[in-house]
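ligand=zinc ion
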Amino acid sequence: MLEQARQLLQRTFGYKDFRNHQDAVISALLQGKDALVLMPTGGGKSLCYQIPALLREGTGVVISPLIALMQDQVDALRQHGIRAAFLNSSLSGSQRAEVAKAFRQGTLDMLYVAPERLMMESTLTLLDECPPSLFAIDEAHCVSQWGHDFRPEYQQLRVLHQRYPSVPRIALTATADMRTRQEIIEQLALQQAQVFINSFDRPNIRYLVHQAGSNREQLWRFMQAEHAEDAAIVYCLSRHQVEETAAWLNAKGRTALPYHAGLPAPVRQAHQQRFLREEGVIVVATIAFGMGIDKPDVRLVAHLSLPKNIEAYYQETGRAGRDGEAADAWLAYTMQDVILQRNMLEQSGAGEMHKRIMQQKLNAMIGLCETPACRRQGLLAYFGEQLAEPCGNCDNCLNPPETWDGTVAAQKALSCVVRTGQNFGVQYVSQVLLGKADARIHRNRHDQLSTFGVGSEYTLNEWRSIFRQLVAQGLLMVDMNAGGAMKLTADSRAVLQGERTVQLTRQQKTVKKKDAASHRRSQTTVTDTVLSAADQALFERLRSLRLTLAQQQEVPPFFIFHDRTLRQMAEQRPATLEAMSAVAGVGEQKLQRYGKAFLEVITAGGEQ
Ligand code: ADP
Ligand code: ZN
């Protein structure tokens, strides 16, 4: 049976080998067992159910949360010659009847439905008539009421187990934490399922974190230097910030589209569509954007503010580089973000218990931002995974920050906060430390304090950074109800009394450019091929053919071939269809449909 699966992998999908336990998952399903698959984004979850659905009797039913994406999911499968359809409210009554008919006749390999549609009696009756080959529950973390993608309908999916005990079920998610795993098992009654856990490392993503004043300008410089023409997602905290940032990027000459829950659905849909179908589009979004977006060639995910927790950060940055090629996760935050997030939580109507958990999660996120150690090690450790060596592909590995003993500086800062009555913000207290008596300081007689001018060894910016780190470390808090005044915390006293030391970091100014040799990758290896000029030129021509073909069919370019496939073509320059079929990602159907056209471009390129 597994031999057949392997043939299908090669013939239909054009890949040589299984990866990330795909073969073991497939084999479990082929034996009629249930499976829970935890695999990072881009790991290859879909093949785990697509291949068994093709091999087993009956139609594979895929439960997917977003009906807006079903058309695309089905179109992508059809490109491979797979008979796929979906059932949702966007279809007319007669179209739905058509799909139901195909289902009954057994001429469908896969059927996509949303959970609420599946639970309708009419759908269940249809399934009673012709038992499906399997149920695939995609984005299974939607059952978790603690998660940010909670969908109550998902919890009803446990009836599948009771109603169709002999149909194997596979639940899949890229969410890594233990609590969610446990909840999926319980909510979906998957106690008997085989569990497949992969490393959550995304070695091709480079993590970069900045503590910044003017985030946007920094982002722009980074984009110009590294992603001038790439597709990107920029996450912002508020709708207002989304609109503003998108307009600003457009004014700079990039194509940037806003996306947030306040926009009408057709606008959101149109922007998502353009992001998928055009090349080099930037979506500027609140967290409302991204779930289920399978665009493989997003080269940059940027955060212009601090994410609420590490789960969200991991999930959002995970949308970069699904195709396994090098990508960046870039984050810049300010002390203002830390204060804002802490206050939002404090003032939220949530119960004490919930608040406390959320506070801890936020602190872990801040800790990850402030750490001088390897970001990837920190990130994976949060999900209970040990990475033996520093990764070599994050800002702290590439450009180690200097740590220094900041105890004395912290003492000066804290004592100046005390002497000014815990009534002032960073700017004011810093000026006192620097000994700059402006009118306000003079009026308050703070130029008479013993701490006036004791901090002149640092610049204003350095004091800002020190205060930010003290707030981040919980040694100071900022009271927004008192105009941003800094106050001591329970932990401050030990510092003031010299009972505890404070480690601070200093970011070095330069960020190293991508350097292939320095990418010591942890587990998976990433092929960061650098094309020769001639190959690059051919690659561009292949891309432009791809875009034309995609536009003709009104599908995203990556439905036809991924960048990686085109890059391989440019390098290997296959001269026959047979040689082309050896390129990864060229399956039978695609070879038949597109092989000739791409071959022509390649041979024409050779003559030039
Ligand atoms: P996920 O759903 O886990 O995020 P996908 O199923 O979309 O990931 O797969 C990510 C990419 O990896 C897709 O382009 C897919 O075609 C490719 N892929 C999947 N399995 C393999 C494999 N065994 N070998 C090579 N590429 C694969
Ligand atoms: Zn690292």
